[in-house]
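Model: Ready when you are.
Researcher: Fold this.
Model:
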Amino acid sequence: MRAVVRVNKIAILLGTLGMIVIAGILLSVTQSDFVRIFNSYAGDGMYSKVIQEAHASGWSIPQERLVPTILGLPLLYFAMMGYSFPTYVGGEIRRAPRAMLVTVVGSIAFTAFWYITISALSLRAMGEDFITSMGYLFFSGSSSYPLAVPPWVNTFFVIINSNPILTALAILSWIAFGYLLIIQFFLIASRTVFAWSFDRAAPAALAEVSDRWHTPVLLMTLIMIIGIVISVVYTFTNLLSFPNLAFFYTIALLPEGLAGILLPWRKRNLFESQTSFVKK
């Protein structure tokens, strides 16, 4: 367990270091610098051509921002939804009331800080019209899209940055945060099915904990096999190419959100037993 904690701490440090590197590179580049670098990479005059092609195809930056912002909230929720994951292991955490407060609220603040920082620096360095035009051309499947890869911040970072050490740190950052995300999904699946087993909604054998490994080995093995099968199907076939994950995650967790909203009225005693911070 101590080894796992140590690895997780290293992953968090590497991930954060990568975000600092990306922010630093974006901060060091002016928009004129980016135009020059991008044109050198994608072709002479390509920066302006991207904007022209997008607008000619029907794209325009909305003047009214409220409706697009509301429509984008499910995607934002999907991007930041990891804040709720500690609840799946809340019963296994020492000093849970304090630890859960720090992890849930702290993770929201941490993620929001980096999203806001990277977004603001990207707009400053690349220009809003260019970023939105690249997104429009890519997601509309336009033949005018100039790159062979999606227009993520990671893509532009690699184009802007010429230092291989900084690129390596950024790549390690993405791997580190990806690792932390993956293990959370294993915890969610295992704890959920574990609870089902106690309620006899799933076979009781899945809740058996190994005396040697102190974990439900059969359950974790089953989850691993299911994950591998789905990964193979998703990668090598088109059977799972249709899902909109942000939409389905929102639908799946909507009942929990509604339950939280209704808690003060439906379960008044449970609500009143919480700390003042939680009630606020």
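Researcher: Now this one.
Model:
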Amino acid sequence: MKRIKWFFYLFIIFTFVSNNSFACRYTVREIGFSDIGTKTYNLFFFTDSLTPEEQVVNIRKYSNILLRDTNVRMDIINIVENKSSPDLKFLSQYNNQTYPFAVLIAPNGESMACSYTKSEHSMLESSWYLLESLVSSTFREDLISRLIRSYGVVLIIEGTDSDENKRVKNAAREAVKTITGSFNQMPKIVNQPPEIMVIPHNKKDDEKILLFGLGINEKNKNDTHVAIVFGRGKLAGPMMTCGQITTRRIYNLLTLIGADCECGIDNSWLIGEMIPLRWSSSEQDELIKQLGFDVENPFVKTEMSQIISLKAIVENPINPLEENLLGFVEGSFEISNASNAIPKISAAEIQKSFSHGNQPKNNLILKKMLVTIGLIFLIVAITGFSILIFHKRRTT
């Protein structure tokens, strides 16, 4: 029994040490496929005393079906019975006289009135169409498919300036070309490079919900925008607009996706804002094939939750929008507008981006591995010595 206890204690020590000695097992991209820490969109259906009860029942039934496996949640609020509801503040922003009236609320508090009636369709058909359009579209289905099989997506939303649209597309192509050439520097290689998707200016009305999720509204809808999307429809950093868009910044945000979770960034970058979408079991099954593991596995999810919950361990976390996470990159960036150019990163800054404090990350990982190997040999030696002592005592 004593011998069994010794081996049990040694096994526990070895397991604990090995789990804490190696670098993070996951990249930012892999963590991005989880829904940990992400906030939902809220759809409020405002009704009054004249709204038929049957209609309310059917809307609730449809939501249970259509909003399952999505990041949109629905509440039905009767304005007569719930006069003190704090959510009525969203209704007061619109000059509405007819009910039911639907308002979609983004995680940042921005709201959007949703058209509830559809010509040549009944109210129930219109309800079904509205709920479905909130979480799915042909473009978003294509986007999800590309996110699963590729490194990520550079999403370009065209503006009214054709020259600016052309400049941004060239910048995106150059950034994708450069990041593809940098795959050998990454912790894990993704087979497919980033893809570029474009929403033409004349097709924006077809993707109002998606644009709302990206933060595009009436004030800026004519500008050219770029969003770096990865994982489960999450944004890597902020959406960039017009002059903010450069090859270097697109590239920098792309390096974030391929970085591991110990890359010296604030862990809030790991969560990211998510666009409204449906993530069904078929997408999850395909993702498991691509990753080789299930991000919804309780053990994996627990480990990822612990990673996200930890604060950044560097005093001054780097800003992935302004600094790339791969260090040295061969070649140069061609940026059409010199006034938008970002200064090159110095060697000291590159070293800082791979550091915990002032120690280079690669050296830190190497030391961890050496420590682990040393501990393994120590455990083996102690075990062998214990067995030898045990046998000697039995023979005497």
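Researcher: Key takeaway?
Model: Residues 41-135 form a domain with the Glutaredoxin fold (CATH 3.40.30.10).
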